Amino acid sequence: MELNQLTIHELQNRLRAGEATALEIVQALFKRIETVESRLKAYISLMKEDAFEGAIRADEAIKKGDINPLTGIPIALKDIYCTKGVRTTCGSRILHNYIPPYNATVVEKLQQAGAIFTGKTNMDEFAMGSSTETSFFGATRNPWDPERIPGGSSGGSAVAVAADECIAALGSDTGGSIRQPAALCGVVGMKPTYGRVSRFGLIAFASSLDQIGPFTKDVEDCAIIMNCIAGYDPKESTSVPADVPDYRDFLSRDIKGWTIGVPKEYFIEGIDPEVEQAVRQAIKVVEGLGAKTRDVSLPRTKYCLAVYYIVAPAEASSNLARYDGIKYGYRTPDSLDLLDMYKKSRSDGFGAEVKRRIMLGTYALSSGYYDAYYKKASQVRALIKQDFDEVFRTCDIILTPTTPTPAFKLGEKTDDPLQMYLSDILTISANLAGIPGISVPCGFSGSGLPIGLQFLASHFEEGKLMQIASAYEKNANLEKRRPHL
Questions:
Q1: Is 78 a catalytic residue?
Q2: Which CATH number fits domain 3-253: 3.40.190.10, 3.90.550.10, 3.50.50.60, 3.90.1300.10?
Q3: Strands of the sheet with 397-401, listed across from one edge
Q4: Could you state, in order of their start, the residue ranges of all structural domains in the chain?
Q5: Is the pTM of this model over 0.90?
């Protein structure tokens, strides 16, 4: 296997044994990027010079025995994190020339762990989308079938990992934006508990829902990344000062005696039969490992989509008010006065989906409608969380499909926003409740498209997710496939 195809832990072993150098790893990655990137558009900006300089420093550190958890490991960053001196666009014209003066906390933590950054990955504009088609910089394509979407909004990160254009990547998940593209691209993707990973330096979409997490090639790599990025950050007001275990400790534990809840509401009308079949087979695997499954109910699931598309646009409306063409970002060159400049800068700078959500959110927050929409949605959101709390009193884990279908064709749903929104119907509940979730591959459709399996756990139980995801991964006996590009 080529170096760029290996996992973090496999590369760590080679680096420590002197069987590979960080420079060789970076060279292999950028050779791969040069070969496939023009067909996939996983990246918005490459950091090639920084990566090669970082590799040289990593090799020097390894020779001295100064090895950190990610020393010499190339990682891609969703273009939603501030990176000092490196363009950060959020996939939008309005930030096409923005260069932050500081790093996001997760970027600092990865740097301290020794990571090398390959570049900033493509994404739906301001993370608003389910297909990575709303990016100002063009759509990203699924490496399993370049005529299909990779999922969104973190599609570029998922594709970069699946196509071996990086070893691991970070994304953000507001309503499924890590788990959904992970499922559609056949990689592992985790959304941690809200407050487990600092959002400082993450460009906000919906502040009560956004969470940062990893894309990796297997569950062990997910544990390694989580060890590096999780933890309290005094710079971030919603960061929780909870102890962070060593997630790798959970990888060798069994799940014998566990109770797995299977919610009937997640096997919805219209779910693809091949997806349901793959997930039902996964249930048999976990039962074979000594866990027992039981049918459970999350009765307010039917309200999740409506609640999400009130809460998220309302918070987006507030967060995106700062982009006015004055302080930074895009400013129209042609305006009559200050008000005209505001209007034209925002009209030209934002894409159609972002403008749609700003208008929806502004309406929901407007005088006379706040109580009927945002307040009511917040109340139902609390009830959705109660549903999960009730199930977790009797179950260790909840098991569901990650997405209702495999990846759909590019352009198939761009003219029907409601159908696009339904792509996230199985993932948004975890964001509303603030609980952690992980998607792992569980098979392929008849046409060779990946299918994802989702595990959900109670707050700050990421270790349990690692435990069951690792046990499933080791025992599912899935066919090993790679995208053919």
A1: yes
A2: 3.90.1300.10
A3: 43-46, 116-121, 74-78, 168-172, 212-216, 188-191, 437-444, 450-456, 397-401, 259-263, 292-296
A4: 3-253
A5: yes
